[in-house]
Design a protein that fits this description.
Elements: H1 2-19, H2 22-36, H3 40-50, H4 59-71, H5 75-88, H6 95-108, H7 112-125, H8 132-145, H9 149-162, H10 169-211, H11 218-258, H12 276-296
């Protein structure tokens, strides 16, 4: 893409020799120079000045301007110029790339629904583009940012399966692992909630029996209190154990998120180690709690 830009810039410079005004030509040349050096702030300023001259109102100049704005992090200006480009240069060879760039910029600005629409249109019209997997990735990121995890996971799976050599494949796999971990966390939260409800029920029963202590047989009531208290202690241990596991999982998820930028390729991460034995232990705890509840009833 940068090679195409360089060629376009060279052709633009040559074309200016015969008719461009000196100021217009100088602004364009300085913009190209800054662009080639990676000085995006200066390139953005000079190219913005260049397009203010009628001689520079070309698809090549606007294409470089948008690229400079994106690289400089000026997404709002880039979005405005993308709209100008798409309206005025529908036959340009860069038109598909500006369509993609608009969707990407909308994602950067947090306008996720609009980003999904723009990038989906790009994918429908440019199935053979080298930016196709990138567009899919940012559709997935927009869904992920909107908490639509199941839909996002389907997009990420498609990238990993259909585009394994894409630079976005590793980032997509990381997101798949993150979503799986989140689902495991939700299951653990549910189990904790169920166990906690049983604990509260048992506690209420204990307090009820305590209030009846003076009216019942002392020996029988004492035995009931001992049994109920034993059940409470067991449930308390289960709740504490589950809370420790939940805290450890949340810490791991927060540490992973802190080291990862949503807008960059995310390095491969080791998937959460959830062995069959761990599932068996959690399942056994839930069964024991249920059994105790049934025996009490």
């Amino acid at each position: 893409m940068k090679k195409n830009i360089a060629v376009a810039a060279l052709l633009g410079i040559l074309s200016f020799t015969g008719f461009a005004s000196e100021s217009a030509q100088m602004a364009f040349v300085e913009g190209c120079k800054s662009y080639s050096q990676g000085d995006w702030t200066s390139a953005k300023f000079m190219l913005k000045k260049a397009v203010s001259y009628p001689e520079n109102l070309t698809s090549d100049t606007y294409y470089m301007l948008i690229s400079a704005e994106v690289n400089a992090g000026d997404d709002r200006s880039a979005l405005d110029d993308c709209n100008i480009y798409l309206e005025n240069f529908p036959d340009s060879i860069y038109y598909p790339r500006i369509c993609y760039q608009k969707g990407k910029v909308l994602y950067n600005l947090g306008e996720y629904e609009k980003s999904i629409i723009a990038l989906s249109d790009f994918c429908h019209q440019n199935e053979e583009s080298d930016l196709y997997s990138y567009a899919l990735f940012y559709i997935g990121e927009s869904l992920f940012a909107g908490y639509k995890y199941s839909d996002a996971a389907a997009i990420y799976e498609r990238i990993v399966t259909e585009f394994p050599d894409s630079p976005k494949a590793s980032a997509a796999q990381y997101r798949i692992d993150s979503i799986s971990q989140r689902q495991r966390e939700e299951k653990l939260l549910y189990l904790l909630k169920q166990t906690g409800e049983e604990y509260l029920s048992a506690k209420e029963e204990y307090e009820k029996q305590l209030r009846q202590y003076n009216s019942d047989s002392i020996n029988n009531t004492r035995q009931k209190l001992v049994e109920t208290q034993a059940r409470n202690e067991e449930l308390e241990r289960q709740v504490a154990d589950l809370e420790m596991q939940l805290a450890a999982m949340k810490t791991e998820l927060e540490n992973s998120a802190a080291n990862t930028s949503m807008d960059s390729d995310i390095p491969n991460a080791e998937p959460y180690d959830e062995t069959k034995e761990q599932l068996k232990v959690l399942r056994q705890k839930a069964l024991e709690a249920q059994k105790m509840l049934e025996e009490r009833k």
